[in-house]
Every structure is written in C-alpha cells, then in structure tokens.
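Pair request: fold both.
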Amino acid sequence: MHFSTHISVALNEPDAVAELASEIDREHLTTLACYYTQDHSANKLRSLLSHNFPGVPIMGASTCKGVMTEKGVHFGCVIGIMAIYDSGISSYGTATVTIAPCDNVTTSTQLAIEKALEKADRVGEVPGFVLLHATPGLEEKIIACIDDTFHTQVPIIGGSSADNHIKGHWSIFNEDLSTVQGVALQVFFPSSSLSTGFSAGYSPTEFVGTVTRANQRELLEIDHIPAQQIYREWVCDHAGVEVPKHFVFELVTKYPLGRIAGSLYEQPYYKLSHPISFSEEQGLLLFSDISEGDQVTLMSGDRDKLVGRATRVLKEAQRNSLRRDQIAGALSIFCAGPMLYLGEDIHRVQSMIVEELGDTPFICPFTFGEQGRFIGGENAHGNLMISSVVFYS
C-alpha cells in the first residue's frame, strides 16, 4: 500500500484535471481523495476526474481557502488530490446522496452505505473505516446511522465540506454524483492496517453550566439565562476581553464550548461546539447540535497548543495501532476555524507534521466540522477538532 499527493493551482477545471492526470500513476491505483476550494465546480471536477480515471472510486469535498500536504500549505484557487494504491485483496466503495430538507437523513444515509458496500462488493461486511464528507448540518444523524448500521463503532474519519466565508458555497461528490446538500462516504477495506486519532486540543476553563433551552444548533439558555449573555460574561471573566455584539470569528475560535465525550484514567476529553454568531433570541448559533440537559464548559485554545495539536493527534493515532510497521500515508482533517485564527502559523503546523511523518505523503483539508473516533471508542461530530487516520505499509 502506498500513496502520492498532487496539487494544481490552474484556474479552470479542464486545465487542472489535465495537469493532475498527467502526474498520477494509473498502475494499481485504487482510489482518489480530492479537496478543492469553492473556485471550482464540483460537478465539473466529478465529470473530468471520472472520465480520466474510469472505474476508480473518487471522493471529493470542498475546503476552506486551501489544502495542506507534505509539500506545503497551498492557498488560493487550488485542488489537492491523494492517490491511494493498494493490492487486489483490498476493496473500496463510494456513494453520494443528496438530502433535501424534507428527506429523512437516516434513510438517505442507509442508502449511501448500501451503495458504497455494493460498489466495494462487500455487502454484509464491516469496513476497516469510513471516510465521511457531509455538508454542514447533518453530521450527528449520519454518524448515528453509520453506528447503527454496522452494530459496532467502525472508525469514522471525516470533515464537513467548507467554503471560504461561511456563505454556503460548499459541495461534495463521488464519481457518480455531486451535490451541495447531502452526504458522501467511502467504505475502506484496505490490505494493510490503519489507526485513527481524534482530539480537541483545547483546555477546559472553570466556567461550566447546564443547557436549559436549545433548538438543534441554536443554544438559547444556560442555567436559565440567555446563552449570549452567559457566553460573553464567561469570556470576559476568563480572558478579560469583551465579545462585541457584531461577533468576531477569530476571537470566538479561541473560546468554544466543550462537552465531555468520555474519560481516560479519570481525565475527561471533550468534543467542541464552535459559535458562529449571536441569534435574534439572545442565543448562540453553533456548528453542531446541542440539547437541553447538556453540560457545557468554556474552553480555551492556546496558540502554541493549537499549532502542535495536529502532530499530537497523529502520535495518538500511532499509539492506538497494535503494529509498528512503516507509515505509508496519512489523511488529516483540520478545522477551518483554527486555521484562520493561526494565520501564518499554519505553516508551522505543516512543518511539525512533516517532522513527525518525514516525507510520508499526507493530505489535509480545512473543514467546517470534524468527525472521528475518540480514544474511548465513541464516534462523534465536533468543531475545532482534528481527526486523522494513519495507514501502514
């Protein structure tokens, strides 16, 4: 099993795909993962890639402003591809399903899983892991359906598709279909072993409260007080800074809300919810679902810790492996919020990953929600997270 990554900054899809197709070796090519900025049409990429690589499973998702590989951080109008090469005993299958507001998310996700297993010729089997790319807003229901379908917690690695300015210009595709609202997933039955990691990288503060009113992704009250008021007070008391009413994205990225997802050796670990904006009802709009009765903690992200956490998650993934074979490749999912907050420091993140992995190929999009399996075995969707899978030769 081996990997290669390829980048194109061509301004139109035909030129970009032609460039990429000239670089990618076809022999033993098993699947392609494609990440692209909103400058490109998902449907054009789907059509051109499937034409150039007939019979090859392809997964695509839009990324915020750029993509990261072992060759650097690539911003602008960019397409990044990871090519995966595997032996004949491996099997991979993809599916994309559009999910309209009136559709049942569980039924649609089950259809996607069935299609992917059929294409992999592995109906009734449990995959090694699932690569998931959904459009924002559907993730928790999709994860629950995947867990229920396989009756076990198959490792999930995923990132919600993103655009550059949270304007809904995101998209996903596989070789058959592209959509701006739905789910794309791929079942992996690789010939070699793999390990996964999923982490927040933020620290809990002393401020904790109970959600007393919520509506899906709108947090309305904490301890019977408007959530907007409580959040602003917590940030001010903890950091000594005011959260202005017009909402500063980079500021709130430093101070998300966390919920305990589990514990290891009596130490809790958290999944995060990223505030997007204040709502008209004095609440907070989030990038993840929240429920009445949830206990929320104000979290804090130190810049140096945020720079180093991608490497820590890769190390965690390797610790989770029972084998110590040579690493062949890695796929990481890095939240767009911390990427934007870190600015030029994102190049330090890339350098530290290269220091950890050497010249091993890896690819990393910047997403609007992250999915993964915690060290305790739970699959979850969170914000401001990092999710990684490491493949071994």
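--- second member of the pair ---
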Amino acid sequence: MSRTGAAQDAADGVVVVGGGAAGLCLAHWLGKDPDIPVTVVEAPDGPLRPAERTWCYWEAGPGEFEEAVVTSWTRLRVRGPDGSAVESEPAPLRYRMVRSGRFEQLVHSRLAARPTARLLRATAHEVRDTPYGAEVRCTGADGRPLTLRGRHVFDSRPAHGIPPHRTLLLQHFRGWFVRTGAPRFDPGVADLMDFRVPQPRHGLAFGYVLPLAPDRALVEYTEFSRTPLTTPAYEAALRHYTADVLRLGPLTVESAEQGVIPMTDARFPGRTGPAVFRIGAAGGATRPATGYTFAAVQRQSRAIAEALRHGRADVPPPHGRRQLAMDAVLLRALDTGRVDGPRFFTDLFRRVPMERLLRFLDGGSTPWEEFGIGLRTPVGPMLRTAAELPFLARREADRREADRRVTDRRVTDRRETARRDTGRSEESPR
C-alpha cells in the first residue's frame, strides 16, 4: 500500500480514524475530491486489527463497490417454523455479500491512486477538539508518538457501551463456511431467515444460509435475545441445523465467524465536539430492527462527502426519525413477547411484496407504503407498544451489558478446519 511512509505531525483536511467499512467508505468518497486531503488511520498488523468479516446488503444495479462483491443472489427465501417457504425475486434489488479483506484491498488501491489521500498505520489513542479543528494522538507502527491535525475528524472506532435506551436486544450469531461432500445448495437462492430451529424461551432464533456454490455456503445460527451464548452452545446449534434441519451430510468447516450486534433504540451521538464526528455503528448506522449496517454506511459517507464539498461540516443521521420510531416499537414488542418473532417475520414476508419490504427495511419506503406494511403486522400489540413507549424512561446499560462489548465486529476463527461429520459431537480446536 502506497503512502504509508514516514509519519507526519500535521494533516490538512480530514482525518478518518478506523479502516473498517465506515472509515474506508468515507475515505473513498472524500478521496474523489482533490480539494479535500484525507488521512486514514488504520491499526497496525496485530491484535487490534479485526479478523475477516462478512457484510451483506441489497442494492439495485452495480454499486460503487461491486468489485468487492463475492457473490449475489436474485432470489430470497424465508422459512416458517413449519417449513413453509416464502420465496421471491425482489427485482431490481440483489442481495450481495462482501468480504472485508477484498473490500479493504479495493479501497486501498483506489486511495493509492489519489494524490490527496494517505493511509497511515498507527494506533489511535485520543481524539479531541482544538482551536484549529481537531487532533488525533497516535502511536505509529514504529512505536513513535504521533499527532495528526485536521479541520475535521471522523471516528469510526467501536463505541464503549450503549447510550441510554428503553430496549436492548442482541443479535448474536456464529456462522460456518462449509463445504459439503455432495451438492446441497441452490446458488441462486439465499435463505434470510429459517425458523426451523428450536426457539429460545426469550427472543427468537433462525438459520441463515448464503450459498457460494452447489457444495459451499455460509451457514449461520442467529438469535435475537438479551444474552449471547457460549461458543459450544453455538456449535451445538449449528450441528443440529446443518445435520437435522438442512440434512447436509458430511461436511468440512473451512472457517467460522462469530459476533454480537446491538439492536437498540438508544440514540447514538453523531457529533462529539465542534470538529469531531462519530460514524459507522458507533454513530448509529446499524439499523435497530435488522442489524444491517453496510448500506447505511454507504449512504452516510456519500452525504458527508457532499456536505464537505460545499463547505459544510455535517453528518446526516444514517436513519430517519420515522424509521427509528417504528424500529423502537418492534424491538419493544419482541422484547416483551407481545408478538411471536418467527410468526411476525414470516407473515410480514408472506403478506408484503419482498422488494417493497426490503426498501422499507433500508429506509427507502414512502409513508403510505409504511402504513400499508403496518396493517400487515399484529396491529393490537403494536399499537399498545407504541402507546407505552413515550412513558418509558431511558436507562443506562448495566455493568453486565457494558461487559458484553456489543459491537458489529465479527471474530473469525481460521483454525476451524477440522472435518466435521454430522454424526460427531467433538469440538474443533480454538
């Protein structure tokens, strides 16, 4: 990667802290303007750099990062607890998978070709406002202290803890990249939610299958609940799902991912000072009711770059107030048990055209469409929940919640390469 060279003590323009999806998306859009110098601060190789992650989103037509897309699907499916399937082609939308390593390589190569962009490998310790803008205090890859100065700083590092909220559920999961001994998957169809798994006492659970080839797929077990599972519990759930539900037969687990995503009505600050802004999941880019982040990050990055191009320091909210209000009602209804999660989502996909529903989940629907979608939900429980929300106090996360470190970072265990037979119960090495 070019321009990682000697550390410099001054950076005119913009400093972006963090080289994940949010940071690199913003750097990409800012780098298109030759009048906006941009420096990206990425953690050096080592424990602070996240492992390989998977991001998924839907989009119409080829997007800005199409070269980083591993594969995509034109048809999507949801299965109810009884096995009934809702399958549709949400044209013109396609469901896309991006792997973080490929995405980073693409954006790095684009930044390298732009003379006003710079990538710096350093560990950021402190971001603060100053009379001239803001500064980032770092330690360079060579161990030397370094201070970067700019007119604006956009910080994409994970937040510490959750702001005051009324509802906090966790979307927690573990996924296997599997290879089967015989063709078992339809590469043209992705399973967004498969509720043919045992349901927890509180919350809901589902399988998630993204075929990569007739004999390869990402298979995940996911829960929406208050507390993550242990890794052995996820492993047991995945063994049951792949063996007893999907009936995949003998398979090899080539790698694994595990993570926790907060689903909350907390208000994440977009600005922490006159010249310091939060972006990405820490700035509220994660859609509370779904856990999806990548598409919102792209929209927000384009809007920030456009604002700076016109001399405005502005970070528009990643989601509209109307969408956040609806998400707050759904999260509360799920958390209280007023709605049955598997039935709620299955019926929603069955009763609403999938293209319209995906636009709704992405914040692109009209108020009239949203009203129609609302009529296809359990109206009584949802109205009761909406009526009580204004009277509920927002609370701080307790110590146990804070210790969960609920971020959207996925942890990949590349050592999970042992061949698994569906009839065997031993754990692979960690």
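Observation on the second member. Residues 352 and 372 are 9 Å apart (CA to CA).
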